[in-house]
Specification:
Two copies of one chain form a homodimer. Chain A contains 14 helices and 13 strands. The first copy, chain A, is of the alpha/beta class. The first copy, chain A, folds into two domains: 140 residues, Aspartate Aminotransferase, domain 1, CATH 3.90.1150; 247 residues, Aspartate Aminotransferase, domain 2 (3-Layer(aba) Sandwich). The N and C termini of chain A lie far apart (59 Å). Chains A and B meet through helix 1, helix 3, helix 4, helix 6 and helix 7 of A and helix 1, helix 3, helix 4, helix 6 and helix 7 of B.
Chain lengths: 401, 401
Amino acid sequence: MSHSNYNQAMLALGQAPSVIRETFEYGNRRAQEIGRENVFDFSLGNPSVPTPDAVQNTICRLVEETDPIQLHGYTSAIGAEPVRAAIAEDLNRRYDTGLSASDLYMTCGAAASLTITLHAILCPGDECITFAPFFPEYRVFVEATGAQFTVIDADTESFQMNLAAFSDTISAKTKAVMINTPNNPTGVVYTEENLQKLCEILRRKSAEYGHPIYLIADEPYRELVYDAATVVPYLTKLYAETFVCYSYSKSLSLPGDRIGYIVVSPQMTDNRLLYAAICGAGRALGFVCAPSMMQQVVAKNLGLTADLSIYRKNRDLLYNALTEYGYRCIYPDGAFYLFVEALEQDANAFCQKARDYELLLVPSDSFGCKGFVRISYCVTTEMIERSLPAFQKLAEAYRKS
Amino acid sequence: MSHSNYNQAMLALGQAPSVIRETFEYGNRRAQEIGRENVFDFSLGNPSVPTPDAVQNTICRLVEETDPIQLHGYTSAIGAEPVRAAIAEDLNRRYDTGLSASDLYMTCGAAASLTITLHAILCPGDECITFAPFFPEYRVFVEATGAQFTVIDADTESFQMNLAAFSDTISAKTKAVMINTPNNPTGVVYTEENLQKLCEILRRKSAEYGHPIYLIADEPYRELVYDAATVVPYLTKLYAETFVCYSYSKSLSLPGDRIGYIVVSPQMTDNRLLYAAICGAGRALGFVCAPSMMQQVVAKNLGLTADLSIYRKNRDLLYNALTEYGYRCIYPDGAFYLFVEALEQDANAFCQKARDYELLLVPSDSFGCKGFVRISYCVTTEMIERSLPAFQKLAEAYRKS
């Protein structure tokens, strides 16, 4: 006999307060009181640059020129073969990855890529490790499989991976490690050297424990890097036991259309079995297939991105100004987040104080790291410009106190 | 320490043979050998009628006239408020249901509606019951929650619900019952009288065991009924503890676009808690939000359906002809399936024999009921006409033997 009329864990998740959502809603109330233009909302990670016209045109052209039964029909669960082949070819051209269509599985976006991959490999009793600070839904996704979610404390100087702590934490129950580079919430890009070291550790520990430890690379921000010198290595090339989870949400500014994919490394031990487990997990979770029309849309716009130069301009403006005002900012090579040390120990208290200046920031606690705030600069450049005096006054207020 | 490099249950699901897929692939091979026009493939449940022009026009208009950041942006996890309000109003108009926007949760289609609802209520140790014959993924979806899946044997005369057996099966561990009317694979619509009796049993047993037994109504075929007299009651009106799982895949011929919703009955005990559990389950499974643009598209085409008269024409043609040839056909009031008794005990053997006449049918075994075949009549009327001599010869072959 069951103990409850519903699944208590799901209820708890559904009722969990979200500081990001609460901040966003506060911003909406405040905008009604004092006008939208006087509220500086840096809370949400939504793309602020429109999808390219080419993407919009592709949608209309597909609707006008394709048999509607085919355009709106199911694809196979793994995605349309020509779409997977085209994406594989594009990745091979850009990264020399040696992928084929059968290494790709189309998904309903980044979250689906992650939940499907995690369900394919994790069982209760297993452990999945990640590095702080991290996207808070990682915990939700891992714990939904029944596995244990373990966090490696942040290196609050560099915000690179704390590899010594990682190596010490891995045990026989460690089945996977999830990484996110360029990183949400810091904007840091893990260096190739550090990624090589991570893979070395994984190879050594996999051999020691006699089973592969999988690397799950969450890469929605892959294309969002702002300096020519910044390299984001393709991880299947560094480590055979790699799943790459991708989404077009950020690169093409299509978050609402739910389209992405999983790459199962062709070098992976038991590649075909793991791919089949991905198929099984997608089926069990109820995904059926990735949105068919959007599969066609992304396949016809490979290599294209939204105008990412706006994010670079925003980054430079905000980083330079805040550094000048005396804030300690982590230099973001990618994504659209600036991670800034709070001016008092308690980041929540700091964010409350920032609201006195109509600045809406997200405290770092929910990302698994205390004492910082996340500033999402996927906003208009003009709003950033108008917000700068407020950041300056906030810093001054702390200097006076 | 884990016993496997992957989740064995997911691997098994990913590797499971599917008789429908196998039949479809056989059809493709056969089409290459003898020409597509000579193969009569009745295996797939894909809409064969195009989505209305109005839907196509809405997509283009939205792309041309909406701010792309908004059109392709995230909605809240539960779906855009105006979309939910519009759907609630449409349902209230059609069925006098008294729903509000806050009773609806937008999803990525029927499968997502089901997995989210099941995860919201079921825990390991619970039981979910369904009536044979049933859509085979029900077992996958229920077992993914850790709950037990229990099947009530078919009433092979009427293919209505076997309520006596159902009443005898319910126990303290029964948390939910799933029904599907109009039904896949039979096309039968459960009578209002039988649905009233089902709800009576649920009320009595809920009282007896001291907890609600939920009714999960899987309704992708709601609008696919062909006789003016056929009534498909709205189940929240018959029973308070009801979830309605809907998808636009069949009614608007948009299966690839993955758009649907869950209705949580406003009369449900703990309605707000159950709604929160739905939110938690959607989050844990990785759905984020239903496709944003498609939310707008369906909200702007409420009350519209694809041209369903083609399915009625197909039904009449096939039912009348096969009955005339001596087949025992279950009269389908809805959906686009005809359920026909096999001409020998083993439906698999019968389907193999049918292939000698290039007829591709699906044996009923995977639907939890032996001795029948499913004929999907979501095909061209012209293919049905050309296939009739083959059905006639198949019947004659059995009469001779």
